[in-house]
Amino acid sequence: MKYYLLTLGCQMNLSDSERVASVLNAAGYTKADNEEDANLIGILACSVRQKAIDKVYNKIFTWNKWKNKKNLITFISGCVLPADKERFLKLFDIVFAMPELPQFPKMLTEYGITSPMAIVPEPNNPIDEIQLFWDVKPKYDSSFEAFVPIQNGCNKFCTYCAVPYTRGREVSRPSDEILTEVKSLAEKGYKSITLLGQNVNSYGLDKHGEEITFAELLEKIGEIGEAINNEFWVYFTSPHPMDMTDDIFHIIAKYKCLGKQIHFPLQSGDEKVLIKMNRKHSVEKYRETMQSLRRILPQATVFTDIIVGFTDETEEQFENTRKAMAEFKYNMAYIAMYSPRPGATSYKWEDNITLDEKKRRYAVLSEELQKHTYEYNKSLIGKTLKVLVREQDRKPGYLSGHTDGKIVVRLASDNKELIGQIVELKITSAARFSIEGELVEKTVSC
Length: 446
What we know:
Layout: E1 2-7, H1 11-26, E2 30-31, E3 40-46, H2 50-66, E4 73-79, H3 82-88, E5 94-95, H4 104-108, H5 126-134, E6 145-149, E7 151-152, H6 163-167, E8 171-172, H7 175-187, E9 192-196, H8 214-227, E10 233-237, H9 246-254, E11 261-263, H10 271-277, H11 283-296, E12 301-308, H12 315-328, E13 332-337, H13 355-379, E14 384-392, E15 398-403, E16 408-412, E17 422-430, E18 434-441
Parallel strand pairs: 1-2, 1-3, 3-4, 4-5, 6-9, 9-10, 11-12, 12-13, 16-18
Antiparallel strand pairs: 7-8, 14-15, 14-17, 15-16, 17-18
């Protein structure tokens, strides 16, 4: 029997999908190349964005029509709000929360009949359930890039965000398990490892001193890198400004295996909007942390997240966000037009910024971002940089990858053996969101 898995949303869902694949493979299923060839089709959903939920409905309506012609079981998991889950119970054969993944094979014995087994009850002990999930060994989709979950859930309750209602409160994975997984990946030759969590830098705080801090976790990973000959880069996402401390930057500066790229979400550059978002940090606090970052890690690139058109955002408040972008000169910004999500606090508020205005503000910030990305990328011309080659580029005869700072790089080559390797390139040209280089050294990293 063949399965097909559609993954929507963030890197956490991608990581979760590797564990779903592992469970299905162990149960005797094989992966189908496309959904048409599968007898079991599932989605890892994302209730955080309306577009992702719309795609779920489009897909399930199509798949349910296929049931008239062939035997087919459908399931859904991932980040699903309670309101969405109630609707999905009528459309999918099996609906389950991700911590219940170890029970999934048992659910499949019902052959897609929606039953009490398919309806996930409130867990007696959420910590035990998520630990059983982490115990599932993932089937990594890549031979050189991997995601390692270190934490699940969120305690911050930003008013626009549904994550606390889809993943629950913060639970930190035991550090010995994280370190064992990272070491194993590094020894196997993986080149890029990303630590995942809704608020990675609050790691360990839920253990009240019984677990190491996030900075200490990075220190131990850095020590692993020093002891292993293989070259690799470790990243993390997403941190919260409230919990970001200078010792994290000092440790990243100390160890070469810790990637020199920081994802540092701003969301808004206006104080009143941040309060309305319940972000628990001020623009000034963010600025102070950015100054520390630039001082301690001057070579690091900085990525951010920003929301435009949040409820009641005035033109002046939006302008403050544009000014913040101009001040902090990000290397990348993931800009989202605000959309209310059921369950989040802001869902109760009027979504009173028009779509056209949101699009205009999105365009203004995108233009502001490009000024700084282009200037930075031009500054790299003539330099020799290490680059992880990731895939064939859309442009024929080219490969693409990224630097230690996750700047996208293209190189003229059709040598597929370079994919998955770290090579040295001399940068020859720059565009707004990428650079191009020539291979200057045939020897690749071990």
